[in-house]
Design goal:
Largest sheet: 7 strands, parallel
Helix content: 40-55%
CATH superfamily of the domain at 9-202 and 235-262 and 301-323: NAD(P)-binding Rossmann-like Domain
Order of helices and strands: EHEEHEHHHEHEEHEEHEEHEHHHH
Oligomer: single chain
Structural class: alpha/beta
Distance between the termini: 65 Å
Radius of gyration: 20 Å
Strand content: 15-25%
CATH architecture of the domain at 9-202 and 235-262 and 301-323: 3-Layer(aba) Sandwich
CATH class of the domain at 9-202 and 235-262 and 301-323: Alpha Beta
CATH topology of the domain at 9-202 and 235-262 and 301-323: Rossmann fold
Number of strands: 12
Strand order of the largest sheet: 3-2-1-4-5-6-10
C-alpha cells in the first residue's frame, strides 16, 4: 500500500545552518503554517543547535541528527516522517574552505544531493493522487554557478550559462544539474532557486559581515581581499526565506528562480559601512574601526562581480524584499550581533580558530 504524507509535513535539510535556521523560524510563524517541520542536520561546524535553540518547545518541530550522505538514514527519515515537501538547504558553502578542502564540498553538495534525490524520488513514486501531485522538492543554490560577471554586464538571468570558477561553485553547479536530471528523467517535481549573497542573524563569523564584526571587536585587522572592489548583490536572509516559502506554495515545478536583493556593493564599501555602524553603536577609544581595515592577498580565482535578476520571481509570484534597503539591513544585522556576543562565542569554539589561522594568518598585506 502506498505511503501517504503525514498532513502538511515539511522536511528541511541543513536547518541548523544560517539560512536553514532563519527559514525554520519563518516557516513556523507563516500564516499557512506547516503541521510538522522536520529538521535534518549533520551538525557540522556551521550547523549548530544554538541556532535553533528557541524552536525546541514548538510541538510542530522535530530535529533529526543525520547526514544527507547516508542513504539508510535519509531513507529512514522519508519512511518515518513521510514529508509532503522537501527544502534542501544542507551544503558546504564557504568558497575559501572549498579552495583548501574541495573534497568535503563534492561529498556534501554533490553526493549528498544525489542521496537525497534518490530517496525523494522513490518516496514520491510511491504516492498517489493529490499527494503525488502536491509533492515538491525545492533545491536552494547560489548565483556563483554562473561565474564572474563583467562590470557593465546586465545581471544573470535564469537562462545564463553556468561557468563556475571555484570548487564550491562547481559543486553547487553539479548539484543543480542532478536536480534537473531527476526532473527530466523521473518526473520528480523539483524547484530550483539561485540566490545572491545572504546576510543577517545567525551567520557563522567566517563569512564577510559577521567576520568583520567579530574581528573589529577583538581589535584585529579587518582583512579585505585584493583591492576590495569585488562587487556582490546583497540579500537579507529573511527575504530569501520568504522567497523559498513562496516557491513552495506557488512555484512552477521544473523551473528555476533567481533570488536577489538588487543591492550591489563592493566588498570594501560593505566593510566601511560595517565600521561606520560599529563606530555609532559601539564606539572604540582612540579612533574608528576603519583604521583596522587591511588589504590582504586576494583569493585565488576571485570572481569580480555577481548580480542576479529576480524579475521572474517578481513577475510570476509577486515577491519583493521586505527589507527597505541594504543600509537598513546592515544596521539591523550589526545590532543583532552586538546583542548576541554570547552566541558568537559559542559558535566560534572548537576548530574555528584553527580555520581562521589557516585561511587568514598566512595572508600578508596586499
Amino acid at each position: 500500500m502506498p505511503l501517504e504524507p503525514i498532513g502538511k509535513t515539511l522536511l528541511v535539510t541543513g536547518g541548523c545552518g544560517f539560512i536553514g535556521s532563519n527559514f525554520l523560524r519563518l516557516a513556523l510563524r507563516a500564516p499557512a503554517a506547516w503541521t510538522r517541520i522536520i529538521n535534518l542536520d549533520k551538525l557540522t561546524y556551521a550547523g549548530r543547535l544554538e541556532n535553533v535553540a528557541g524552536l525546541a518547545g514548538d510541538p510542530r518541530y522535530s530535529f533529526v541528527h543525520a547526514d544527507i550522505c547516508d542513504p539508510e538514514a535519509v531513507a529512514g527519515v522519508f519512511a518515518e516522517h513521510r514529508p509532503s515537501a522537501v527544502v534542501h538547504l544542507a551544503a558546504e558553502s564557504h568558497v575559501d574552505r572549498s579552495i583548501l578542502h574541495p573534497q568535503a564540498f563534492v561529498r556534501t553538495n554533490v553526493e549528498g544531493t544525489l542521496v537525497l534525490l534518490e530517496a525523494a524520488q522513490r518516496f514520491w513514486a510511491s504516492l498517489e493522487g493529490s499527494a503525488r501531485e502536491g509533492f515538491r522538492f525545492l533545491h536552494a543554490s547560489t548565483d556563483e554557478v554562473y561565474g564572474s560577471l563583467a562590470p557593465e554586464a546586465p545581471p544573470f538571468t535564469e537562462a545564463s550559462p553556468y561557468a563556475p570558477r571555484s570548487p564550491y561553485a562547481a559543486s553547487k553547479a553539479a548539484s543543480d544539474h542532478l536536480v534537473r536530471a531527476y526532473s527530466a528523467t523521473y518526473g520528480l517535481p523539483v524547484l530550483l532557486s539561485n540566490c545572491s549573497n545572504n546576510y543577517g542573524p545567525f551567520q557563522l563569523p567566517e563569512k564577510l559581515i559577521p567576520l568583520l564584526i567579530r574581528f573589529a571587536l577583538q581589535g584585529r585587522p579587518l582583512p579585505v581581499y585584493g583591492d576590495g572592489l569585488q562587487v556582490r548583490d546583497w540579500l537579507y536572509v529573511e527575504d530569501h526565506c520568504r522567497a523559498l516559502l513562496l516557491l513552495l506554495a506557488a512555484g512552477r515545478p521544473g523551473q528555476t528562480y533567481n533570488v536577489g536583493g538588487e543591492e550591489e556593493r563592493t566588498n570594501l564599501a560593505i566593510t566601511e559601512q560595517v565600521c561606520r555602524l560599529l563606530d555609532a553603536l559601539r564606539p572604540k577609544a582612540g579612533g574608528s574601526y576603519r583604521d583596522q581595515i587591511e588589504l590582504v592577498a586576494d583569493r585565488p580565482g576571485h570572481d569580480r562581480r555577481y548580480a542576479v535578476d529576480a524579475g521572474k520571481l517578481r513577475r510570476e509570484l509577486g515577491w519583493r524584499p521586505h527589507m527597505e534597503s541594504l543600509e537598513d539591513g546592515l544596521s539591523t544585522t550589526v545590532a543583532w550581533y552586538l546583542e548576541h556576543e554570547g552566541w558568537m562565542e559559542q559558535v566560534t569554539g572548537g576548530g574555528y580558530s584553527g580555520w581562521i589561522a589557516e585561511n587568514y594568518d598566512r595572508r600578508g598585506q596586499s
